[in-house]
Amino acid sequence: MGNIQASTYADIGKDVVKIGDDQAALTAKARVNQLMRKPLTADAAVQVALLNNRGLQAAFNELGIAEAQMVAASLPPNPGIGISKSSGRFEMEIERQIVGSLLALATLPARAEIARDQFGTAQLRTAEAVLKLAADTRRQYYRAAAANAQVVFYQQAKGSADAASELFKRLGESGGVNKIDQAREFAFEAELTVQLAQARQLQRQEREQLVRQLGLWGDDLKFRVGPLPSLPRLQTVKSVEAEALRKRVDLQIARAELDMLAKSLGLEQATRFVNDIILSGSRSYSRARGILPNGEVERVASRSRSLGLDFEIPIYDFGQSKVALAEQTYMHAANKLAEKAVNIRSEAREAYAAYRANYDITRQYQNNVLPLRKIIQDESLLQYSGMLNDVTDLITDARNRILSNVAAINARRDFWIAHTDFKHALIGGGSGGGSVAIAAAAGGD
Fold first, then answer.
1. Residue (of 81, 3, 82, 14) closest to 44 by Cα position
2. Are 243 and 183 in contact (CB under 8 A)?
3. Is residue 142 a contact partner of residue 417, using CB atoms and an 8 Å limit?
4. Which of 104, 147, 224, 261 is deepest in the core (most CB within 10 A)?
């Protein structure tokens, strides 16, 4: 776990712990409880997930299994021992045999090196699982925080609409408002009721998905999600492609697998003519009885030793199929590595483009769209009070302001998701697809 803990802290600044006993479980639980006493931030949610998610602990167990397999592959092959006994009426024979694989013993250093490389790849895969959980948790936190913000905004809009509907009801009873204007206001209030119900349903769904990422249940479900962070300073990277090629953990995994296949190909070349060589040694003891002419019983015992060597004769296949299989497997991995390198460059550029675009979209909403919508609604209300326009314009402006505020919330959510995608496009752990986020922000979905 040492390499994984060091690399994880260097990439995302969070602690990971393998829970192997009660003391470690209590320590992790205390840390989780401490983080959840306050409203969760994105960083706190990631830390809770890394300490509390059981799927991640299962990945750590798989790493332990890989370590045990590495140790087993690094040990000399166990010899086989056999004992047999055969007996008749006047004789008995006991044979003891020990059998071992000379080829396995001769190739032990090469196989041990391959096993160590396989374990190193397993460590990289575990580190990738840590990064993926961190990225998924951070994205889901932003979705849950945005759903909460939408519910709060719809509640505020619903409260204002309820007050206006009550006023229009009284004006309608006194004849101060005609029926069509009254119906328009009531329809607007009813639409907000539906939109609030939809927002609450989305809030529950996003929260439950965050709960699964955090691995919470029981009393821990009372946690609170903090607000969406404000827009940060724009991050610039001079060479996203070079940084991604240097840091991406999945590319490191592909390189390690290619190195292992190269070593395996060398081993196949060295053993292409012989599948195995079995050395066997046996020791026999036999005892027999005979009757002499004078009627006495004679006992005769003898001991013998033998040494055997068994190997397969390559009559039909001189190892070409083994070598061809290894070569094609190696070239398959080499081509997949080249493809991954090309894709990583593209993913890094795409993620950075999505990050920049969502930043500009969110800033446009904050600096221009929302202030202008507020001015429009305030002026519309003044004109309506001065009987310069009718209720239709007032409701239209109010509806447009609500849509703009919801779109601004979604744009801020999509920016932080794009920010997460961009960060993990450089270090690994999965990508959310920046183009989708841009479309969602532009459409106000």
1. 14
2. no
3. yes
4. 147
Residues of the chain with pLDDT > 90: what percent?
22
Give the integer Cα–Cα distance in Å for 216 and 224: 13
Taking each helix axis from N to C end, the angle separating 42-52 and 54-73, rounded to the nearest 10 degrees, works out to 50
Residue 187 pLDDT grade (very low, low, confident, very high; cuts 50, 70, 90): confident
Mean model confidence pLDDT for the chain: 80
- The 10s digit of each residue's pLDDT in 75-121 is 887 788 888 877 766 677 778 888 777 767 777 777 788 788 888 88
Sheet (strand 277-291) strand order: 80-87, 91-101, 277-291, 297-311
How is the chain split into domains, by residue range? 80-106+277-311, 229-273+318-445
Chain CA centroid to CA 282, Å: 54
* Residue that has been written with the tokens 């969760």 in this structure: 40
Q: Is the CA virtual torsion 185, 191, 195, 198 positive or negative?
A: positive
| Same-fold call for 80-106+277-311 versus 229-273+318-445 | no
Instruction: Tokens for 203, please give them.
Output: 């809030």
Tokens representing residue 386 in the block: 């001065």
Tokens of 276: 């195995």
Q: Which of 263-277, 327-341, 368-382, 389-403 has the lowest mean pLDDT?
A: 263-277
pLDDT at position 361 is 94
Which two structure tokens, joined as six digits, stand for 390?
């009718």
Q: How many CA atoms lie within 13 A of 266 on its CB side?
A: 11
Q: How far apart are CA 273 and CA 312, in angstroms?
A: 9
Give 161-174 pLDDT, tens digit per residue.
Answer: 777 777 667 766 66
What residue type is assigned to position 4 of the chain?
I
Domain 229-273+318-445, classified CATH 1.20.1600.10, yes or no: yes
In the chain, the amino acid numbered 128 is E
Q: What are phi and psi of 389, to 5 degrees?
A: -145, 170
Instruction: List 297's β-bridge partners, or say none.
Output: 291
